[in-house]
């Protein structure tokens, strides 16, 4: 079961500038910045009530964020949903006919102490859906 929107990911060209802008918008500081080397992204997180906003900047041109910005410009990149058991959810969603961005969808360590996995937007009406489970 998908429990709630854990965060919304926003692709930005310049994370330093975006941090300043979102700081003004939200009236609070980012609580964490983190680089995910395996994905080639720098991230910054804001928390608002129960949900978070994740800013993502590409570290290199091969990063999915660089490709996304090139094709579609800056903006909402993905929606992340919290799950208790990511392995069980992957199995359930595969059985329902959803496809994932990786052929063998193995969860991997994402930002913010999470195991993550992405559904292919082709199978979810154009929305890139992230499943995330807190690493305990
Ligand atoms: Zn995310």
What is the H-and-E element order?
EHEEEHEHEEE
Structural class: alpha+beta
Low-pLDDT segments = none
Percent strand = 35-45%
| Proportion of residues in helical segments | 10-25%
Strand arrangement in the largest pleated sheet:
2-3-4-1-5-8-7-6
Number of strands: 8
Please give the largest β-sheet. 8 strands, mixed
Mean pLDDT: 95
Which value, in Å, is the CA radius of gyration? Answer: 15 Å
C-alpha termini separation: 19 Å
Shape: globular
Ligands present: zinc ion
Figure out the total of helices.
Answer: 3
What would you say this structure looks like, in words?
The protein has 136 residues and is an alpha+beta fold. Helices cover 23% and strands 37% of the residues. The protein has 3 helices and 8 strands; from the N terminus they run E-H-E-E-E-H-E-H-E-E-E. It has an 8-stranded mixed sheet. It binds zinc ion (ZN). Zinc ion binds next to strand 1 and strand 5.
